[in-house]
Write a structure and sequence with these properties.
The complex is a heterodimer.
Chain A (H helix, E strand, L loop, with lengths): L4 H8 L22 H4 L10 E6 L8 E7 L2 E7 L12 H4 L2 H4 L9 E3 L8 E3 L2 H19 L4 E5 L7 H7 L5 E2 L1 H18 L16 E5 L9 H12 L3 E5 L12 E3 L6 H14 L5 H7 E2 L1 H7 L5 H8 L3 H14 L3 E3 L11 H14 L48 H10 L7 E5 L3 H4 L3 H10 L2 E6 L11 E4 L10 E4 L6 E4 L13 H11 L11 H10 L5 H6 L3 E3 L21 E2 L3 H5 L19 E6 L13 H6 L4 E5 H7 L6 E6 L8 E6 L6 E5 L19 H4 L18 E6 L2 E3 L17
Parallel strand pairs in A: 6-7, 6-13, 8-9, 8-12, 9-10, 11-19, 13-14, 14-15, 20-24, 21-23
Antiparallel strand pairs in A: 1-2, 2-3, 4-5, 4-15, 16-17, 17-18, 20-25, 22-23, 22-25, 25-26
Helix pairs in contact in A: 7-14, 9-12, 9-13, 9-14, 12-13, 15-17
Chain B lengths: L3 E6 L8 H10 L8 E11 L2 E10 L17 E6 L6 E6 L2 E3 L6 E3 L9 H5 L6 E3 L6 E3 L5 H5 L5 H5 L5 E5 L6 H7 L17 E4 L2 H11 L10 H20 L2 H9 L13
Parallel strand pairs in B: 1-11
Antiparallel strand pairs in B: 1-10, 2-3, 4-5, 6-7, 8-9
Helix pairs in contact in B: 7-8
Classes of the chains: A alpha/beta, B alpha+beta.
Bound molecules: iron/sulfur cluster (3 copies).
Chain lengths: ~750, ~270
Amino acid sequence: MKLTRRRFLQNAGITAAALATWKIPKGVLASPVPAATMASGLPGSLGAQEVTSVCEMCFWRCLLTGKIKNGRLVKLEGNPKSPANGTKLCARGNAGIKLLYDPDRLKYPMKRVGTRGEGKWQRITWDEALDTTAENLNRIKKEHGMESLALFYHGASAKFIEPFWHHIGNPNRTEPAFFQCRGSRDIGYLLTFGDSPGSPERMDMEKTRLMVFLGTHLGENIHVSHVMHYIEGLCNGAKLVVVDPRFSASAAKADKWLAIRPGTDTALLLAWINYIIQHGLYDKEFVAKYTTGFKKLKDSVKDCTLDWAAGLTDIPAGQIKETAELMGKLAPHVVIHCGRFVAWYGNDTQRSRALAILAAILGTYGVEGGMYLKSKPPRPKASLFQSDEEESDLEPISDKWPFPPPGTPSEGLIEATLTGKPYPIKSWVIWGTNTIQTIPASHRTIEALKKLDFVLAVDQIPNDQTLFADIILPQCTYLERYDTVYVWKDVKVPYLSVRQPMVKPLYESRDPYWITKQLAERLGYSDCFPYKDAKEYAEKKLESVDLSLEKLNKEGGVVTFQGRPYFTRENPPEFDTSDGKVQLYSEEMEDEDLDPIPRFEPTPAPPKGYVRLLSGRTPVHTFTRTRNNVWLNAEQSENDLWLNDKVAKKLGIKNGEEVCMENQRGVKTRPIKVKVTPGIRWDCVYIVHGYGQLSRHLTQAYHKGVSDGLTFAKNTLDPVTGANAMRVNFVRLIKDGKVLEMPELGPLPSGIPRFQM
Amino acid sequence: MTQYAMVIDLNRCVGCHACAIACKAEWGVPAEYHRSWLRRLGPAMTPDGMSYTYFPGLCNHCDDPVCVPVCEADPEEKVFTDPKTGKTMTMEVRATYKHPFTGAVLIDHDRCIGCEMCVDACPYGARYMDYTLDEPKADKCTFCMERVEHGEVPACVKTCLAGARIFGDLHDKKSEVYDLVHNKGAIRLTSSEVVIGPNVYYIGNPRDLHLLKETCTPHKMNAGRTSRRAMLAGLHRRGGNLLAGAGLFGAVAGLVDLTSSDSNSEDKSF
Ligand code: SF4
Ligand code: SF4
Ligand code: SF4
């Protein structure tokens, strides 16, 4: 087939007359081919030099291959040798380059020259920055004691400062994103199975016959290997039940969507448990052999009938029954997913317990298609410290809660900063976490930041919290440094890899090991961090398991080990609980005057005229920290407000129109576009978390979209763990300056009180 | 002869946008443009139930690519090689053409004069003018032919964590794309007004396909020339003739830049 111009002309119905031609002299035009392509003989990323490493665009840490041409990182791909993600990366992983080459990056150490929050800085030298920091921390420590210093941290960049804080005997350290995400969940599972569900969560979705999601939003949460298993499972014919007030990306793939009334999840779980017990659908052998407290459980849930739950949850009794029967029928090859980003109503530990109990009585633990077991690969070791941990006779703030996850609940440290109780906190070291956006009730966080004697921020880009810092230290990105050796055990095939630099640190940025070591020395701990640099530390760790960087790189950047995902005769069940059994009834909780078996505790319903504000994830962003990435920003630069279509009709709001939200404290947001959809209940609205950043230095992200964190007025804490709740705030809408009362399209059951303004 | 094609499985796609970003990285596509894009659709009610799905879009490498004949660049003879057999063929083509051996619709950037006619003509909005360049050029997806020639799969396919993008030769009866198109009911986004043989197909459940078709099918063939564009193209042509010889080409590029304010190459809403 010869493709002539004439043929195209005929097809397109365009006359030849329209196509007069003209000639351009060759070589006049600038080549449009991107620089990356020009760099080598081969186009695109082909023919590039390759370095393997570990992604840090989120905490999942997929394995990478970086493609480098002429000293410039041109592309990131999944490491084909990875037993988890293979050649695949998510959008954020692919966009890592734009963090590295973000022109807004923190380039030099700086000191504050304006007021706190203003973001006026002046460039200083590393020596001045480190000396000033050390002087201040030493002074405050001398005046007010060690307990007056607090650390807020996140992620791999804090892998040195966090153990250092531990080492010097300071209990004031908090990882807000952990507390606000899965802290309570992990404790709920720990109290039940003696172990957390892991990260990656040990859910055998690829082999399962049924997945039950309550707190899982795969598709909005993207963690590559997890999503791969989820899709594999669905394509292998697994059924999917999704419980969510909103038609989430997962609900869209579900066989059953249970549009639950927000805050009533535990009622549904208890009704399922009761039905499964009453109808003998549970795994009798597993329950008899490996659990304690079954009788007490049975008794405790006996009144949690289908009708009782239907009234509370707004899910028809028939659907509750049908899904319970499906679980019974397909057990034990059922994944009761533990969820992620599940700090919701302040009763989250108990809800997680209920999920864990459901998973247990269905006999899914350690079974193919259920919850697989943690593996025991070798553990590389190399100590960062040459002396013992310092003893501290401080009563840690975390003692206020019976089962706090590691560290101190963020709220405890903020409270102490504001009130001086139980002891005054005078200085915050903020390492890679946006304290303003991450912790609910930002007005309190800001108040605390303004009150402090000294604030240090260590980060890669000028995020909101850096506006409040006295000294800012520029840290290099994960693509410019060695960090540590990573071992994955919560996977079926355990593996080991190491983060290594693809390019040299840009500007004056430095790696976290160097920064922490410098600070430690100036604080009088020169015996800490005995290695020359992070590379030597990684080498020492590898040496302890008979590996080296050279050997590892020869293997393609990853070494795998034998897994043991399921119970077998050689691998019998073991539970690290007080009596070695799965605790359906928790004596530990009883000892702390907590419900030993979860009970339904209602969370207050919206006050009249308000709806609940829910927030969640987008697949193109991680928490609050990727909004300034120019590629990711271009995919979704703003969030929109999901509003039920019937409610919208009553209020006269059309799709795409702009409204403002006003929370129960009367604080108004900037305008946000409305997405009118039948895919959300009438008693709530939804936005994606992490937008609406305050820092003007983030040229892509500044004031794009609306922040949920800043809209959350109220802090509710889980009494078990001290973790914050993210779904306990209410809003109404304002359109064209007029406050709109949110209509109620259904009755409120008598068991649920209203929130008192 | 080969016709490369892609089938996108919406049952698998999780809407992660990785395809869009991997493409940007591979080809240095400026942040504001897309060769490969993802639009989120819904949640909305369809006759088959509620749907919340995605439109992963890219150039369709159409059988009758209306973007090709509108090209204003001078035709030139070009030798095409069959990557499989090494056979060659000579054809007179303008700056954009349909490759006779692979079926890919491609652009010779060196020869593109930036007249923007092809961008206007594509009913799928698959082309954009790259105004980040000193001399703006048209650009779009190449089906990663440069990679395919080197034995690699397209960048978006390689990164797709859901395995939702299936790429192959539609003329090869043993290929997966052939099977999906001929036996598994893959559909394409065509309407009675737009029938130009797109080679990107979609499979999915009835509700998702319904929403996709409803919101993403083009219903208008662009004449390819709003009067303003035609005028500019005319100016461009004359200016080119006059000025290129005088070595003042930059002045013409300035004229072309005027179009950027009303260029809406990013708008994928049809
Ligand atoms: S899930 Fe995405 S961002 Fe997270 S580690 Fe993997 S590729 Fe990186
Ligand atoms: S999709 Fe548009 S640009 Fe691609 S071949 Fe078809 S008409 Fe041309
Ligand atoms: S990469 Fe695959 S799963 Fe992700 S949006 Fe693109 S087609 Fe869908």
